[in-house]
């Protein structure tokens, strides 16, 4: 076991472990640490704790110092310089006629490097742009291409739920999201309803996936044959996953058919085999493709 603290460099960013060293560090403190990018200013989000050695990437670096007022002032000045750097880079991109969308600019704490984050449809030859920027800033320049989900995480926004985006507030890493999750949860397969601000499937589809998988395993599928508590036989017409209720068309003694509702636990049916995924029908795939083309939404399956 090793004693570590957790440090974050961006809001909702990944947490990195550092050794507290001789300092008495508490959650909420600002610290100066050395990273692969250089000296950085970070916030302590988890206080000193013991973690297993296999969870640590060696060598584990120690905190240089707890941030002073001068360090905080320097960090504030860096944030202002980043705004100016962003505008300069934007102008240079237009000058070179590059098909790229600038997202953010970031100075390392020691000003040893300026990073520019951008999105683009394909590979971009930005060698001349880097030379141009290096002549302006007189420091190391790094251009980093990111995806649309990372762009949304940096910029933030409001989701269709009316709340700030999960990726910008608390989600430290992106989990794989699949269209099959939407089907498992009986959601509309309309891309505009299940896609986030970034145009990809909403990350929150993963929040209840495990619960829906468990509940669906207790239910018959639509079209399955069931036996009711009265001993009648019927075919499942629809299911309510959260209420664990089943509507079935049952055949009465006089051969008449009637729709009745039952608790799933009251019915006898052949249990489902646990599936690794949920297959989409040809009709659903065709519907999704048509909606993608109509709404301009693509890459609905992030797996």
Describe the structure.
Helices cover 27% and strands 26% of the residues. The protein is α+β, with helices and mostly antiparallel strands and 303 residues long. The strands form 3 sheets. It has a 5-stranded antiparallel β-sheet with strand order 2-1-4-3-5. Strands 9-10-11-12 form a 4-stranded antiparallel β-sheet, with no helix packed on it. β11 and β12 (257-263) form a beta hairpin. α1 (69-96) packs across α2.
Structural key phrases:
303 residues; alpha+beta; 5-stranded antiparallel β-sheet; 4-stranded antiparallel β-sheet
Report a brief summary of the structure:
The chain contains 8 helices and 12 strands. The chain has 303 residues and is of the alpha+beta class.
- Lateral arrangement of strands in the main beta sheet: 2-1-4-3-5
> What's the count of strands?
12
Termini separation? 35 Å
**Class by SSE composition:** alpha+beta
- Summarize model confidence as the mean pLDDT: 86
List the helices and strands and how they pair.
Blueprint: E1 2-8, E2 15-18, E3 30-35, E4 38-51, E5 63-66, H1 69-96, E6 101-107, E7 113-119, H2 127-137, E8 140-145, H3 148-155, H4 166-169, H5 179-184, H6 191-194, H7 209-216, E9 225-227, E10 233-240, E11 245-251, E12 257-263, H8 282-295
Parallel strand pairs: 7-8
Antiparallel strand pairs: 1-2, 1-4, 3-4, 3-5, 6-7, 9-10, 10-11, 11-12
Helix pairs in contact: 1-2
